[in-house]
Amino acid sequence: MTKTLLAEFTAREGAEDEVARLILEYARTVREEEGNLAFDVYTKAEAPRAYWIFEVYRDEDAFQAHLRAPYGGPFNAALAPLIEEEASVLTFLEKKSPEEEFPEKKKEAGDPPPATLNI
To answer: Are 75 and 67 in contact (CB under 8 A)?
Structure first.
């Protein structure tokens, strides 16, 4: 089962460029990990100093390997004085499928594919 999380932090005023450099460099490194499936860096459109990092790992073992990686500690030490929080705020996520939320709508064999919406 995949391990998915959202890491959030806010760059201090004046530290925006350094935070962006650090997190983008770290993202390139993390994406090289064997068990990493996603490490996507976002900022809030209305608050560009607020970062949301969406992370997905193959499983718990891959996540633990990520935590043990030798570059994680130095990254967090460099980031800490540049953000408003004491550390990144982590929220662990569980993916829900429509079948779990609406069991009465479970797809049966032979059902037509769902319609798509082009926006």
So the answer is: no
CA dihedral 70, 72, 77, 78 (to 10 degrees): 100
Q: Write out the H or E segment, with its range, that includes residue 37.
A: strand 36-44
* DSSP letter assigned to residue 83: B
Spatial distance between the Cα atoms of 25 and 18, rounded to a whole number of angstroms:
11
Q: Which pTM was predicted? A: 0.81
Q: pLDDT per residue over 75-110, tens digit each?
A: 999 999 999 999 999 999 999 887 766 666 555 666
Q: Using the structure block, give the residue that is written with the tokens 């490490």.
A: 39
Residue reference for tokens 């004046």 = 14
Task: Give the total residue count for the chain.
Answer: 119
Q: What's the chain's average pLDDT?
A: 91
For residue 4 the two structure tokens come to 């998915």
